[in-house]
Amino acid sequence: TIIMGMPHRGRLNVLANVTRKPLEELFCQFDPKLEPSDVSKKSPKSYIVGTGDVKYHLGTCIERL
Predict the structure, then answer these.
(1) Given a cut of 50, is residue 8 above it in pLDDT?
(2) Is 25 helix (H, G, I), strand (E, B) or coil?
(3) What is the C-alpha to C-alpha distance for residues 14 and 20, in angstroms, rounded to an integer?
(4) How far apart are CA 56 and CA 53, in angstroms?
(5) Does the pLDDT value for residue 57 go beyond 70?
(6) Would the pLDDT of 32 be above 60?
(7) How far apart (Å, rounded) are the C-alpha atoms in residues 30 and 3?
(8) What whole-number distance in Å separates Cα of residue 19 and Cα of residue 61?
(9) 41/1 Cα distance (integer angstroms)
(10) From residue 56, how far is each of 8, 23, 37, 38, 42 by CA, in Å?
């Protein structure tokens, strides 16, 4: 298990490029009118975490073997 903490600056970059969280998931979390496509719904290994009080408190949890 790896737990990373960091300031807001660069967090979205780390989520997208280091943890490989799909950009589509990130955009859908920022705009509630957006819906994830069928492709991203088929990714059960990644799910949304975060407090929800500020959009930059988004996180991710992903399982890799």
Answers:
(1) yes
(2) helix
(3) 8
(4) 9
(5) no
(6) yes
(7) 23
(8) 8
(9) 24
(10) 6, 14, 22, 25, 25
**How far is 60 from 47, CA to CA, in rounded Å?**
6
More confident residue, 61 or 21: 21
Query: DSSP letters of 3-64?
Result: -----STTHHHHHHHTS---HHHHHHHH-TT----HHHHT-TTEEEEE-SSSGGGEEEEE--
Where do the structural domains in the chain lie, given as residue ranges?
11-62
Asked if 43 and 11 touch (Cβ cutoff 8 Å), the reply is no
- 37: three-class secondary structure by DSSP: coil
The two three-digit tokens of residue 31, written as one number? 């705009």
